[in-house]
Predict the 3D structure of the following.
Amino acid sequence: MRDGPPHREVQGHGRLVVVVGVTPHQGAEESSAQGEGAEVSVAERHAGVRDAQRLACRSASRASGDQALESRVLGNGHALFGEGRTEKAWQQDLAGRLLYFVVLHPNHAVIDTAKSVVEAWLADMGLTLKPSKTRIVHTLDPLGSEAPGFAFLGFTVRQYRVGKYKSRTGRNGRPYGFKVLITPSKDATQRHYADLRSIVTGGKMLSQSVLITRLNRVIQGWSRYYRGVVAKATYNALDHRMFPLLLRWAKRRHRNKNGRWIMHTYWRTVGADRWRFAPPEGAALAKHLYTRIQRHVKVRGHASPFDGNLLYWGQRLRHHPLIAGRTAVLLKRQGGACAWCGLLFTDLSQIETDHSDPNGTADLPNLRLLHRHCHDQKTAADYAAGRYS
């Protein structure tokens, strides 16, 4: 069981895994079985039933034979999602939420069978697979005209052959001979750069501080989403492409100034970085490369969010890929517990940052994390005590 985005580097490949509508903030999961690669069928359903929120469905384990495959891939609606509704109703509900899914298996014949089963299942509801989005590829070697690997929910998953000294070993002590690298997909990277470019080109009349504020929101959010995978090279390439984009923005504002004047006006030395796009006062432009890669930490053994071990799950929050760095520091300092009521945070908790001294600064020593309802109580108590100046 895993939470968060995919692991930065994973050894092995998937068995029979069906991912139906994985939640976008979670990313695609990777499995850890042994072998030489997996055939992958990536498909997209034609939209038209319901464009609702995506549904995270449990992975199916290995199946053998057409009947077992159909049972595992499609399943019984009431068996997967609870009782009380007919299988037909659950199928329609699932199809309305299903936009993308991946089937993994080392046997090409099983993948072909899975594709036929899915097509027949969708045809019963008047739906079809989109041919331009349906691909059968291999994660390690080229398959016909298809390159190895596949893109899914903004990530590219591919296996690479490595020597025995760089390969991990399986349970039998023998090296795999390859490794799995998950990187930001090319399309996702291009969309992100297009968003940054539209902000810069559309902000010709903005001040440098306002432009930096708008860019930082996009850069920090995107970088944080991909910090759990192999993304350093992508980060560096994006920062490299930002420089000429910002230079054109600055030159347009000062057509009669030379390059040296523009450089000294808009780029400054911040710490060890001598080329930082920053105003004389205020925040500097965030760089993708300054986002620290954070390896995904697997869930321990048989731990479950429903086992009552709130201490373990509360402390895991600081490793969540979408938790900001300051929040992670505060979670570690507080032991994963609310500073007001003392109860542990969970994945469902609404966490807010509070100032211990309402009139104090926003520095870390004066900050602490509270539940949203605890924050309301603390603010009301501060007002009642006249602590606000």
Notes: Residues 310-384 form one domain. Residues 1-35, 44-85 have pLDDT under 50 and may be disordered.
